[in-house]
Amino acid sequence: MSHAEWAESRRMWERARRSLSGGVSTGLRAAAKPHPLFFSGGAGATLTDVDGHVYIDYVLGWGPNILGHGNPRLVAAVTDQITRGATYGAGHRFEIEAAEALLALYPDFDRVLWSNTGTEANLAALRIARAATGRQRFVKFTGHYHGWSDTMLLGYRRFADDGGVVAETRGQAPEALAQLELVPWGDAESLRIVLENSADIAAVVLEPVLCNSGVIAPPPGFLETVRELCTAHGVVLVFDEVITGLRIARGGAVERFGVVPDLVVLAKAIAGGLTLAAIVGSAELLDLTQQGVTHAGTYNGNPLVLAAAVATMAELGEEGVYEDFERRGARLADGLRGALAAAGIVGAVNQMGPVVQFAFGVTQVSDTRDFFAADQARYDRLAVALLARGIYVMPGGRLYLSTAHTDEQIDATIAAFVDALANE
Question: What residues act catalytically?
């Protein structure tokens, strides 16, 4: 398959550039190689592009499609609800059913707040933490992503050599930088120093598994220490489980690691591909939204997405789902390590349940320095070679598995990696 064989995608992209900035609906897609692709549909773990090529899909909509494409239970729920209306601006049974199902997965908590995106929900969590503590500033960790807002898009890909905070994007409000303390991921002592020397920290916000920058597990005992420090200093601990929630365990990182934060932010997998986010937490914190803390949104908790959420959680509750995620994730990760070894290429592969990270040029990805040192340009070339072999992956090296992926598809993917690496 040559680049010319994506001719229809290229024509559509060029047409899109006349009406959409960059020809895409989110800026990250503009960097896709050889150019943004356009798709006509999906089925199970596969996607078909407008040129008729079928791919095994490890992008999964950048994570939300945890059930794959066209899952029958999800389709039935959404199809039934859309005939009854997309949104009411009022209460309905799915609000209750979805909240009860979610709290069953996170039994340490009392309440759910519905939102639409991870960016929105993280901002709401920070507002609640500020209201609860009477403080303003917050701590986050290098390489962690909590959405694209001015407040939280800091320390993700850009920071000063001394670890200081710098603007991440043009147009970012400079006062946002003053609200943040940036700490190296996994460095409990640096966090301790910050909390002991600042009386104005409302929250510590983190990805419990650093999925956005390397699929890096927390160092042993780190989450427990963060929990202890936040408790000792009266700071609200927020787990951003936009990626890990309902993915690395039914109850996400809280279940997997046994550390209970004060608030958990969820999105992506929670509604099987429809736009939904949530905050789960204690009644003491979340009921502040009935005590002067504004939490709003026209589309919050609409019946269409919550019907999808109920169906998604039911599907993920089937016997063996998470055991299969672990087994198939390990099968893919082991196969990719074998492909690197067979080609004699230096690289590393991380895996946590159905999330896998592939990196060139480093022997391990155990902290953000390793991740940023990886050869991303080489991976971009590999991604194009994989497209030509029927494998669709996102930039950056992260691969997602769904409930629809099969062992045979994973084995075909490993064979494609072996062939692509052998023919670099």
Answer: 145, 240, 268
